[in-house]
């Protein structure tokens, strides 16, 4: 995406004292939201969501510049420069993720070419994502998310808020909605249809389903949803491998990169076959762009792990902050005969007394199971990627052996 696209060109950035670890975490959250919004803009054919990707790119640009400034000040001798060099690589890779997400958004903004029936081909499990501005007379204005209790009433979640030039990622119960806030809402279409008018003062108009003019369009849409989930997971694990100096997570990023390459190859082959049968093959041009951008995100995630894979130690400015972290990401292999084998996982939560959430499972001979609503039964040989406290991670690992 061009640096001069959007509301402004370049923003002056001055140094602000900040923890390198905090900046990396903020960049990780921003990268994940960029991926989420860009793919969702394609799946829902939403120019308004795509334009928020451009806004978020500006935020990533500022974070990258501040991270570079902090890293330059942290390196005072050659040994420190050696351990900080991979972190500079992380910053550079984040730029690639941001650019690739912008390229995906541009497919919608510039109408490069997508099948009209894509939204109608979405499975029931894919939630609606919309952009809405808080109206002056909205009953939600001036109230916290806890007071509104939007998710309990409608099933809709506020996943991010843009307030002028600032972003609130992962808003919590105490986050207050102000008039003029640009919100991103995700949830079932019926819930969005109920919440959107209250928030914006405008009617929610769902697009009428279009009959697919291309055979097997559902397969392509399912592939895009999988690309989105795998890309988000790869970036999450890549940053986790750096923040926690975890080579096991870096290895899983490598496994994910192989999976994404194979998926992208199959997706391109499907697109070429569909173009042969389409009345106007140009309408599929955006799918080729999407496949290329997906591979770029996967490659960038692998670049983030380079310092870990080369066994370059973590700089103290990162290491000290990591030790204070309450939550970690782990990789656990389920042994035959273990207590964990046969355990049911519903909506990413295993049926155990341990407070942990399952992000993904790599299953031998089947590949990756990934998604926010992961439902399956754990099998021996499964490699589970989970997130939880250090204590719960240790207890979870014991159940797997």
TrEMBL record:
InterPro entries reported for this sequence: AAE_transporter (IPR050144), PhoU-like_sf (IPR038078), PhoU_dom (IPR026022), RCK_C (IPR006037), RCK_C_sf (IPR036721)
Domain of life: Archaea
Positions of the RCK C-terminal domain: 115-202, 315-401
Protein name: Potassium channel family protein
Origin organism lineage: Archaea, Methanobacteriati, Methanobacteriota, Stenosarchaea group, Halobacteria
SUPFAM superfamilies assigned: PhoU-like, TrkA C-terminal domain-like
Keywords: Ion channel, Ion transport, Transport
Pfam family for this entry, one: PhoU
BP GO terms, sorted: monoatomic ion transmembrane transport
